[in-house]
Amino acid sequence: MRVIIAEDDAVSRRILETLLCKWGYEVTTTQDGEAAWNALQEPGAPSVAILDIMMPRMDGLELCRRLRQLPGSIPPYIILLTAIHGVSEVVKGIEAGADDYLTKPYDREELRVRVQVGARIVALQTKLAEQVQQLESALGHVNQLQGILPICSYCKKIRNDSNFWQNVESYVTDHSHAEFSHGICPMCYETTVKPQLESLLIARSVEPTQQSKPIDFQSE
Amino acid sequence: MSFDQVNSQPRETGALRLTPAVAIPSDALDVAVLNAFEELQSDDGSDLVIELIDLYLQDAPQQILAIGKASGSAEWAQLKRAAHNLKGSSSTLGVRQVAEICEKLEAANCLDPSDGVEALIQLLDYEFAKARQALAAERQRRLDESDHR
User: Fold this and answer.
1) Whole-model pTM?
2) Considering only residues 70 to 89 of chain A, which have any Cβ-Cβ distance to chain B shorter than 8 Å?
3) pLDDT at B114 over 90
4) A213 pLDDT exceeds 70?
5) What's the rounded Cα separation, in Å, for the pair B4 and A177?
6) pLDDT (average), residues A115-125
7) Where would you tag: which of A11, A54, A143, A153 has the fewest CB atoms within 10 A of its CB?
8) Per-residue pLDDT, B117
């Protein structure tokens, strides 16, 4: 998973970079809020952002606000990591759009687990987004069968999107994941199959020497 | 104004009484803080601690210069920002006295001369010079140590 660091202090930035690489993340570093803003708008941008608040060009709070207004897919998980202490500052940070707030000097283990939480949430969001996409795609198939279908009153063929008349079985197969097994319903057995069998038997009794033929229902 | 002059100033500076022996611990560098970065060393032979010392010694003089300039032109927001930055990197590396002075600069009411901003800046110069020596010595010790390995 990719993590971006926005930190203007070179020492803190290098330490953070070392820690995150050690924990197995792919790390991008930036020295100010504007550079981070640009990097986070690129395709395949990092999923977790660790931002300082006091930075040149664009501060961490403004960056949070902008990131929350970004249209599109999954927003990054934002951790504000700052030397600015106090409950009111934490409230300001979270209200600006941060998911978490950690003050310097920080405990490395605490940072590690908080980044882990971020990575877990991003993974969950990604999975949910994929499932929503799959559901929307499935819903698309269902919608095609729910619309008004022009069907021939006599032969029961359906006119498809290409204006061809298609039998019901092949149409349904083309427009859904349904598959058909073939059988005979009791009514058809009584009204169609049984009379055919009976007529065959009669025919055989009239011509006993004639060789029996395989029954071909479709030709009847 | 020399460091001794700063220290011997009779005037009261409220919370910012400029007596380093009392207000600020005597050691320029807490080596234990630096040593705590040992566990982050990579296997490629590079020394992270030396890298951090170099980064700090590169950046800190610029911040101190910015603090001095901002004070001269009464740009207090810039002064506080530079002090804030220097405080962060100094405390991270165990340069505690510099960090404490920066914290006081950050909190100082710059419009009130009795806050002793100028005196704090001079003290910062002095303490940074001590810290630079200590960091350079630690850097050299590490280099010598790695040569012996």
Assistant:
1) 0.68
2) 83
3) no
4) no
5) 88
6) 94
7) A153
8) 87
**Distance from chain centroid for Cα A155:** 40
Looking at chain A from residue 22 to 41, which residues have their Cβ under 8 Å from any Cβ of chain B? 22
**CB-nearest partner of B52 from A11, A54, A83:** A11
Instruction: Return the closest-CA partner of residue A81 out of A20, A183, A14, A7.
Output: A7
pLDDT of residue B8: 42
The answer to whether residue A71 scores a pLDDT higher than 70 is: yes
Interchain contact, A10 vs B48, CB within 8 Å: no
Q: Is the ipTM of this complex over 0.90?
A: no
The C-alpha angle with vertex B58 and arms to B53 and B64, in degrees rounded to 5, equals 110
Residue B74 forms contact with A (CB below 8 Å): no
